[in-house]
Design brief:
- The structure is a single chain.
- The protein has a seven-stranded parallel sheet, with helices on both faces.
- 41% of the residues lie in helices and 19% in strands.
- It contains 14 helices and 16 strands.
- It is of the alpha/beta class.
- The protein is globular.
- Helix 10 links the parallel strand 7 and strand 8.
Length: 416
């Protein structure tokens, strides 16, 4: 089926979905979760084929991003069930007032319509996006990268089986069959068919969408995430946070990429950091890319001109020394992609200044950046992490997949 034919199906399904009750949607979501579990073997077989094709072309951390397991599929199913338990935003009256002529003006939350998602090598995005789109009343059009396409196809088959069990149309969740760049461009320019386009992937994909999209587009995902260790920080706590933020899953967008350290503690802190992230890690030691001042304290790779502007998505960490909180804030706001930043400090004044002045979607005080996630924020799964400011910012849950319209109720009023 061509991309245009799939978009025609989505446009037609949008009207049908608008009449489905919240109760029926919740029922369908539970069937979809059960169906994922029932189709585990098929999903894993197809995922292994994707992995074998990708093994010689991507890094080991990207293979981890692509890989599924029984446990991860159970997690995907649980994510769908959590979405089913959340309150629906559809039809919620956001505000209401009555005019002097008796007209009642209600600002009401409504679905966007057709939401398209272009994503690369994370097959779990398939079920997350489908669940959030359905619960928020939107038809979902998925365009997976070729690396994960067989996995995504198997997941969509399972989800559509769940929709059919609930007596709903399979066209509420659609997967683009073409994995060439042309299908991405078709979605970017699908005016009249796509109401919102969400790219989830690297800098290249997001830049292409910003350049080419004629449909509304959300910028998501690219995460040059920083942690700043203040002079008053609990150093053991800081080390735990840094280890988690950098090494728990380095291939995801909320992983730490840059560490800044106050100059007053650098000579004490950096050797501890090297032992933890390099010397004591037999498997996947972290490569430290050090600025000139840090190089004088510990051994590591000299940082290049671009290292503080790079999303490594790997066991690599750029490390710099700064004079104080003000210099850390200035550095972060200059180099950040607006995703997630953290300060480790025991000084209330510095924490408050950092929180107010850092211009990113999520700002942490004494916690890991790895929490920037729809599930961790209590939103169920997420459609992506928006790094822009208009319409949506941070993890995109159900509320961000609705817009609003005004419904005006009268009793025969006319304008004079």
């Amino acid at each position: 089926m061509t991309t245009h034919e799939i978009l025609e199906k989505a446009k037609k399904a949008k009207s049908e979905l608008s009449l489905v009750s919240v109760e029926k949607i919740n029922e369908a979501l539970l069937y979809m979760a059960d169906s994922l579990i029932d189709h585990t073997d098929d999903i894993l077989i197809n995922n292994r084929e994707d992995i074998e094709r990708a093994r010689d072309t991507v890094s080991s951390v990207m293979i981890d991003r692509l890989s599924l397991s029984e446990e991860r599929i159970k997690g995907m199913a649980e994510g769908i069930r959590e979405v089913a338990d959340l309150p629906s935003p559809v039809g919620k009256v956001l505000s209401s007032h009555t005019l002097s002529n008796g007209l009642v003006v209600e600002k009401t939350s409504v679905p966007l319509g057709v939401v398209a998602i272009i994503y690369e090598s994370r097959p779990n995005v398939t079920s997350d996006a489908a669940a959030l789109a359905l619960k928020s009343g939107n038809v979902c059009v998925l365009r997976s990268g070729k690396e994960a396409h067989k996995s995504a196809s198997a997941i969509v088959r399972a989800l559509c089986d769940g929709l059919e069990r609930a007596g709903l149309s399979k066209d509420f969740v659609l997967l683009i069959e073409d994995t060439t760049r042309q299908s991405s461009l078709d979605l970017m320019t699908a005016t009249g068919y796509v109401d919102l386009l969400i790219p989830r992937g690297g800098k290249g994909l997001i830049s292409a969408c910003v350049r080419n999209a004629t449909v509304p587009c959300i910028q998501t995902g690219t995460g040059i995430c920083h942690i700043y260790v203040d002079e008053s920080a609990d150093q053991e706590m800081a080390l735990r946070i840094i280890e988690n933020a950098k090494t728990s899953r380095p291939s995801v967008c909320n992983a730490e990429e840059v560490l800044l350290i106050n100059e007053k503690i650098a000579s004490e802190f950096l050797p501890k950091l090297k032992v933890l992230l390099c010397d004591n890690r037999a498997e996947h030691p972290v490569e430290l890319r050090l600025d000139e001042r840090a190089q004088k304290i510990i051994d590591g790779t000299p940082a290049s001109d671009t290292d503080f502007d790079t999303e490594f998505l790997d066991y690599i960490l750029a490390v710099g020394i700064v004079k104080d909180t003000d210099e850390a804030i200035e550095h972060i706001n200059r180099h950040s992609t607006g995703h997630s930043e953290a300060i480790i400090t025991n000084t209330k004044e510095n924490a408050e200044k950092f929180a107010k002045m850092i211009d990113s979607s999520s700002v942490y005080i004494n916690a890991s950046t790895r929490f920037t996630d729809g599930g961790e924020f209590g939103l169920g799964c997420e459609m992506g992490i928006s790094t822009q400011k208009l319409h949506a910012r941070g993890p995109m849950g159900l509320f961000e997949l609705n817009t609003y319209k005004y419904i005006i109720k009268g009793q025969g009023q006319i304008r004079t």
